[in-house]
Amino acid sequence: ISRALDEPLCNGHAELCSRTYSNVTFIGAHDSAFVGDSPADNQDLSLTDQLNAGIRYLQAQSHVNAFKTLSLCHTNCFLNDAGSLTSYLSTIKTWLDKNPNEVLTLLLTNGDRLDPQKFDSAFKSTGLDKYAYIPPGTAPLAFDKWPTLGDLIENKTRLVVFLDYGAGPSVPYILDEFAYYFETPFDSTDSAFGQCTIDRPPKASPDGRMYIVNHYLDQKVMGGIMGDVLVPDRDAAGKTNAEESIGVQVGVCEGLYRRKPNVVLLDFVGKGVDEVQKILNGF
């Protein structure tokens, strides 16, 4: 039986409309702002092209650059400055305006431990704050109390925002990542991806938390007087991002935590994202 033409879609799939946010698995773009062909870049596709390819979870690093601008910088702004946070958010706002049935998540790192008001200013300058979801109450929302994707779309709160450090009640839509998630180790150089241990927050309990699997591969290169450094393994991305490789690590995680991850972060996202997300979400 074909799907009725007027059946609502949420993130492209009717099946997701009735799913709570905490019961959806997203493929995410790790370091989504760092696009290009330099050794420090993590993505090939532009931000808009990542979204058009099916990515609904964006992660990005932030720092203040030499001009005192809050920017998307890789480790530090001398290494790789991908432009201002405001410009990045403006691109997201334009895309959300054009795609009214999509729920998007943004996870930002706060490398300089700035007050969340600094991030709030960037969101407000683009109007993106108008899309942001604010959980009810003051305590972190319980795992099973998240709204469905359909509810988020209907209520026009289609953007969920997390900050790794410094989130607080002064900006209620910027949520504390580690109050809601735990993460597996990052910067892996082992292509087997045979682990799913809790790396952050240290000694955290998995109970009541969503979780993020860092499924991207790095390689060591000689860094001269600085010693060996890790860079994204671009050549291995096709294998790393394949259903088989992702499935192996997800299987390890399911064995430990009895549920699928909420996010699988990848470098060099591309075609096939939606198919993998469909498999991970069971349809």
Polypeptide structure, described:
The chain is α/β, with parallel strands linked by helices and 283 residues long. Helix content is 24%, strand content 19%. It is built from eight helices and twelve strands. The chain has helices at 47-52, 85-98, 116-126, 149-154, 177-180, 237-240, 243-257, 273-280; strands at residues 26-29, 57-64, 70-73, 81-84, 104-110, 159-163, 174-176, 181-183, 210-214, 218-221, 229-232, 263-266. The protein has a six-stranded mixed sheet with strand order 4-3-2-5-6-7. It has a four-stranded parallel sheet with strand order 1-12-9-8. A hairpin with a 5-residue loop joins strand 2 and strand 3. The longest helix is centred in the C-terminal third of the chain and has 15 residues, at 243-257. The mean pLDDT is 94.
Helix content: 10-25%
What would you report as the Rg, rounded to the nearest angstrom? 18 Å
Share of β-strand residues:
15-25%
Mean pLDDT across all amino acids: 94
Strands side by side in the biggest sheet: 4-3-2-5-6-7
Give the overall shape, derived from the CA principal axes: globular
- Mind summarizing the main beta sheet? 6 strands, mixed
Distance between the termini: 15 Å
- Helix and strand content put the structural class at alpha/beta
Number of helices: 8
Question: What low-confidence regions span 5 or more consecutive residues with pLDDT below 50?
Answer: none
Order of SSEs: EHEEEHEHHEEHEEEEHHEH
According to DSSP, the number of beta strands is 12
